[in-house]
Amino acid sequence: RQALESDYVSKNLHKWADLIFGFKQRGREAVSALNTFVHVTYEGTVDLDAIEDPVQRDSIIAQIQNFGQTPSRLERKPFPNRNVVSAVKEKSIDFNALASLAALTPPFCVVGAPHRVYLRATMLDTCRVGMIGQMDSSVGDMCLVKGQLVGVGKKCALILPSKKYYRYGGPNNGVSVHVAMTSARHREVNRVLSIHDGMHRAPVNVAKPSLNGLWLVTGCVDSTVRVWRYDGQNVQLQATLCGHEGGKVTCVDVSTTFGTIVTGGADGNVLVWDLRTLTFLRKLRHINVTAASEDLGSSAISVSVNHKNGNILTLVGSTLSLFDINGNQVATLEEDFEFELH
């Protein structure tokens, strides 16, 4: 999969199409490219219904069955190159979409915004959980459920399908499961449903469930990452991932669509893991990290996987970077807020 999705294949895929379906299938171009086959295998070369000699007809059929049939030629001109990053370079912006984000103030991400957006921070430190406001912490996670904005506090992560949320960071080195929204079964918001102790040898610093709620990825202050399966009642350890060079794991994200886990640490490293095999895939290499990021120790602050195309967004220090599914850096947003395409 990694080979087929690599940049080399993307840049040369049209050459293969020229040989099989294009202008190099027949004629002088085919001879120059050493792309010639048995003549009876080409479309339209032989009319089997017009052959009356059964021996000759059977021999031609045998040749076709042995060598196969050449596909239909679809194009007589060279196929164009594939545009790998055309979606990122799209400049058309609908500014009317920004008005719908007013209810999410203060916003932490504006999707589809131009290269520069001015945000005004507020002093409001309230997280609205269902119909009850909780004043103990700032917003840690939120989502829109049937037109209602549901949020949970810091050190919490929503489990979307079940209307529950994880709370982590306590001295029990584990997580607890709470009610996020009232339902016929659970009428009390924030009620503790289960407690899972000793999931790590030290406190859990970050946790992220998958969109389907079946997976949970936790990051510890001892730089380890653990992957769990959650069946609605119990969590079962699937693997312990080690790769960060000391310091705590600061951010994680998981995508079941692309089978990807992304983790960031205080060491500044952003690592990508395979969710299916639970093995290491690659380390994302950040280009043009600003001096301000270096002053901050280049700690990974946030990572996010796009569930539509597999792109990965990272915030290391004060540098925002976009990577494609193969780990290639596509764009960088420096501290001066100028968006740079690679």
What shape does the CA trace take?
Answer: elongated
Mean pLDDT: 81
Largest sheet: 5 strands, antiparallel
Question: Helix and strand string, N-terminal first?
Answer: HHHEEEEEEEEEEEEEEEEHEEEEE
What is the number of E strands?
A: 21
Flag low-confidence runs.
86-91, 119-136, 291-296, 337-342
N-to-C CA distance: 23 Å
Q: Strand sequence of the main sheet, in spatial order? A: 17-18-19-20-21
Radius of gyration: 27 Å
How much of the sequence lies in strands comes to 25-35%
What's the short story on this structure?
With 342 residues, the chain is mostly beta strands. It has helices at 7-20, 27-32, 54-67, 291-295, and strands at residues 127-129, 132-134, 139-145, 148-153, 156-159, 164-168, 175-179, 192-196, 204-209, 215-220, 224-230, 235-242, 249-255, 260-265, 270-274, 279-283, 300-305, 312-316, 319-323, 329-333, 339-341.
